[in-house]
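Re: duplicated header lines in exported structure tokens

Our pipeline writes sequence and tokens for each protein into one text file. With two proteins the header for the second block appears twice in some exports. Here is an export where it did not happen, for reference. First protein block:
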Amino acid sequence: MTFNWDLVWSSFGPIVGGAVTGTIPLTLASFAIGLALALLVALLRLSPNRLLSGVARFYVSVIRGTPLLVQLFVIFYGLPSIGVKLEPWPSAIIAFSLNVGGYAAEVIRAAILSVPKGQWEAGHTIGMSRPQTLVRIILPQAARVSVPPLSNTFISLVKDTSLASLILVTELFRNAQQIAAFSQEFMILYLESALVYWVICLVLSTGQSALERRLDRYVAH
């Protein structure tokens, strides 16, 4: 068996191009929406209103208790059966955002709870309302705690976007699949796509470490 280096070089551009135009935008859009949703769900989970807290808890339970692939298929293939038809890209963004929201909500909730209750009292003492205390005092401190797990969620999302190829979203792995189907060199193309994913995640992991060191300067020891 000979290794087809010509195929490796010729396919490198389309695979990286799929990452730039598909994987990375899909990851950024889904994570941004998912993070906003996660904050809302986390606050609902902490709400004294049992109904709101229960709805948020149910959402988190469903997301964490079902596979991402099933969630993706329900949105793209299942919703048309009840008259809701979505294109591949919106379907992928919705599925990934909902998934991130479910997992990140627990991270944010735990980070908020890790802030000493005295911080709430301090905000009240200087005349801040509860929302003002949350935004100006609690969330900045919670953000430092939540950076590592949220960064891990982001890195996992980069890899999870490969599932979008199953609903015909053109991204990194989809391009590799198409080239492999044409050339019949499946091992080479799949290893090459794995290498590109690894490099992206390696860069993100390095950035995560740098961000953690920077935030650690502002934490009292």
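Second protein block, exported in the same file:
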Amino acid sequence: MQLSKFLATYFYTTEELCHTLSIDEETLSAWQQSSLFPKPSYCLQSQLECSSYSGIYQCEEYQDYYPRGAASWGQLIIKHDISSSCQAFNYFAQQYSNQLSKLAEQGFAIDEELFGSEIDEHLQQVWQQFLCSKYGVLTQNGLVEEAVQLDVAKLLIDDITELRTKTGLSVEERQSLHKALKLMNRALSHGTGNEGKNTLRHRYIDDVVAKYDLSVK
């Protein structure tokens, strides 16, 4: 998929995001400066040559792109009148923890150390990654629930396959791995197809499916 088509399909421009949230760009910038809202996932700088009846001229264009799920986070900020990074983090932590509980109820083995005694440190880390728009690039919509799904699936796949070094799997391990792959597949970004092999989808889905003869369908 062409980059321009990919961005137009799965992302909002700054103008579109602000229109969706009924805010101006100054408000969005203030949110970001106050660490309430993620930075753009993609920043596009285009060198253009325009040809028309008036002649040919060159110009540059700059455009930022945000995942569609960013609108949901913006609506939360507006609804709860969030004005500090501490408030924003508390809502983020609550959403993240709620999604962890849902996955546990669905039978996913949640890492007791990382998501138990070390949960506070982990939440601070993923909050900073959320603000830097890591999940806006890696997940389909940049939603908090997708960030949790991705984090849990990645840990499960690493654990079951021993960092993808295990040569064989038991029937039970194959079932657990298949479930983790489906979870990751549901959360992962579609991607443009031009990122090469150094992507989570290639390393954690394509390679694992091929290595252990699995299918995520």
